[in-house]
Amino acid sequence: MLMPLKIPAGVYRNGTEYQSMGRWFNANLVRWFEGTLRPVGGWRKRSSSQMTGTCRGIINWRDDDAKRWIVAGTNTKLYVMDQTGTLKDITPTTFTTGNANATLLTGYGYNNYGKFAYGVARPDTGAITPAATWSMDTWGEYWVGCCISDGQLLEWQLGFTTPTKAVALVNAPTGCAAVMTTSERFVFALGASGNPRLVAWSDQENNTTWTPASNNQAGSFELTTVGSIVAGKRVRGVNLIFTDVDVHTSSYIGQPFVFSFEKAGSGCGLIGPQAVAAIDTAAIWMSRSGFWIYDGYVKPLPSDIGDFVFSNMNFEQASKVYAVHNSKFGEIWWFYTSAASTENDSYCIYNYRENHWSLGTLSRLAGVDKGVFNSPLMVSSDGFIYEHEVGFAYDSQTIFAESGPVEIGNGEQIMQVRQVIPDESNLGDVSISFSSRLYPTGTETSFGPFTSANPTDARFSGRQVKMKVTADSLTDWRVGVMRLDAVPAGKR
């Protein structure tokens, strides 16, 4: 009989492998979109030269003359790139260099020798110095930004042939953690003046007036929180302010208070300054307590892969987590550092249009949606800016999706599979392999890979099988519903 392998979209990676029965269990550089399994797009270099330092911030926009710009910041430099890919240094002369990596102060010399047993995790008594991350926004056609290591609110007022340097905003607070602009054209200094709870804002339409007076709307407000402000995001109708433990909203109300502030959620603070993405009316972010969404209310976002992600993350480097919105496919990508690494080498994806998850491995330090460009832009550890979702070149990475166990027959009877009936848009673009077991934790036997034919001969038996689909061609392939031609082989 023919048994269709109707596996729902997305990866399920919580708990045991057997719990992913009938779902996809592992994947790399694939997506499920509009009912089919397909590869994500490849990438190619966009910048003509490397950046110095480790990039932790990038933004793109169009100026009043319709020219397109990209600004990217590392722990040592600030760069601007025009639409041709030429990269130029606009680092302020007063810039303070930051850390490329986060540092946990629990090592040699931090406590007495022999204080803790060898191999036992140290208690939470040490402070983490985070990696130097950038907060970026636009003020009209100008760029504004702030690096956590520097604390200055900076502005770049264009000028590329002889590049002008970014400069500190006149009269703005120093010692800031982040910056954002509101839809009413105020500039917010977050964590201003070294106070981790203070939000200060400029006068409306005037980012050089910061001292409150009867003839302006500048002001400040100290949040009621035990956390420290790490980021802000603008969504429709409200400004979200994230601390490392909770989330607050800010809304414009006019004089005399100018802005109102309200705590929106507790226990859902941001895991890192760039771990949140805004999608018009909502924001989605990663916290140490899981994934969260704001769509008028703060609420947890159930995840099919959260157990795997948070069990395999290097939390010491959590300040490097970077969220990238890919609006074309309705996806949020989070790049993070795995437990075996000290730099971003893994990613997870939430598709908010179709409500499913995926994961894989890819080293990207920062990224931004396509915006005014044709493709999303991301920065690799080699210091180059790449455009993504172009072509199908992947630097020799393996493109695959592997299912969890699929019980064949009634789950009690051993089945003999004789053939596979493939379902591809172009036969032969992928190869298929299988592994079978009699029990969830039993010995696994592998079969294949098989080159797709119509039908494909494949001889194996078992109570449960797993299927792996691997890309054999660098093309835009599609895979639908595979079918197995199987007959009973007896009981045990």
Which key phrases capture this entry?
four-stranded antiparallel beta sheet; 492 residues; Jelly Rolls; mainly beta; 2 domains; Methylamine Dehydrogenase, Chain H; 1 helix; single chain
What does this entry show, briefly?
The chain contains one helix and 42 strands.
CATH-level-2 architecture of the largest domain:
7 Propeller
Total individual domains? 2
Count of strand segments: 42
Major β-sheet annotation: 6 strands, antiparallel
Put simply, the count of helices is 1
| Mean pLDDT, all residues | 93
The helix fraction, in percent, is under 10%
And the CATH topology of the largest domain?
Methylamine Dehydrogenase, Chain H
CATH class descriptor name of the largest domain: Mainly Beta
Gross geometry: elongated
Question: Based on the structure, what is the oligomeric state of the protein chains?
Answer: single chain
For the CA atoms, what is the radius of gyration? 25 Å
Please give the alpha-carbon distance between the first and last residues.
Answer: 21 Å
* SS strand fraction: 35-45%
Q: Please state the structural category.
A: mainly beta
Task: Determine the CATH superfamily of the largest domain.
Answer: YVTN repeat-like/Quinoprotein amine dehydrogenase
How are the secondary structure elements laid out?
Layout: E1 2-5, E2 24-28, E3 30-33, E4 36-39, E5 43-45, E6 55-62, E7 68-74, E8 78-82, E9 87-89, E10 103-104, E11 128-129, E12 134-139, E13 142-147, E14 154-156, E15 167-168, E16 178-181, E17 187-190, E18 198-201, E19 219-222, E20 229-235, E21 238-243, E22 246-254, E23 258-266, E24 276-279, E25 282-287, E26 290-294, E27 298-300, H1 306-311, E28 322-326, E29 331-336, E30 346-351, E31 356-361, E32 366-368, E33 377-379, E34 385-388, E35 400-403, E36 406-407, E37 414-421, E38 430-437, E39 445-451, E40 456-462, E41 464-471, E42 482-490
Antiparallel strand pairs: 1-42, 2-35, 3-4, 5-34, 6-7, 7-8, 8-9, 10-11, 12-13, 13-14, 14-15, 16-17, 17-18, 18-19, 20-21, 21-22, 22-23, 24-25, 25-26, 26-27, 28-29, 29-30, 30-31, 32-33, 33-34, 35-41, 36-41, 37-40, 37-42, 38-39, 38-41
